[in-house]
From TrEMBL:
Residues annotated as domain 4Fe-4S ferredoxin-type: 1-28, 29-64
GO molecular function term, any single one: 4 iron, 4 sulfur cluster binding
Keyword Iron: yes
Xref: PANTHER family: PHOTOSYSTEM I IRON-SULFUR CENTER (PTHR24960:SF79), PHOTOSYSTEM I IRON-SULFUR CENTER-RELATED (PTHR24960)
Keyword Iron-sulfur: yes
GO cellular component: cytoplasm
Pfam families in alphabetical order: Fer4_7 (PF12838)
Gene3D superfamilies documented for this protein: 3.30.70.20
Name listed for the protein in its UniProt record: YfhL family 4Fe-4S dicluster ferredoxin
Keywords from the named record: 4Fe-4S, Electron transport, Iron, Iron-sulfur, Metal-binding, Repeat, Transport
Length: 86
């Protein structure tokens, strides 16, 4: 699954620079996550970095974008051009 940001977001700006795939961006009202770029940090880190730094815990898994570990790895490889070394 990709992640998404709920309306509990306080626009604190800490999640966006932590995303290795540049999937997080400022939306009209709150930060948003592009599901086509979100790999839950697979290939980069053991845990999603945005979730680790979010002070209000408003970045859950997106039930509308379910993806397997294999799909996340394939997305990582396509986005980075690197082979997954997990």
């Amino acid at each position: 699954m990709s992640l998404f940001i709920t309306d509990e977001c306080i626009n604190c700006d800490v999640c966006e620079p932590e995303c290795p795939n540049e999937a997080i961006y400022q939306g009209e009202e709150i930060y948003e996550i592009d599901p086509d770029k979100c790999t839950e940090c697979v290939g980069h880190y053991d845990e999603p970095q945005c979730q680790q730094v979010c002070p209000v815990d408003c970045i859950p898994l997106d039930p509308n974008n379910e993806e397997s570990q294999e799909q996340l790895i394939a997305k990582y490889e396509k986005l980075t051009g690197n082979a997954f070394e997990g």
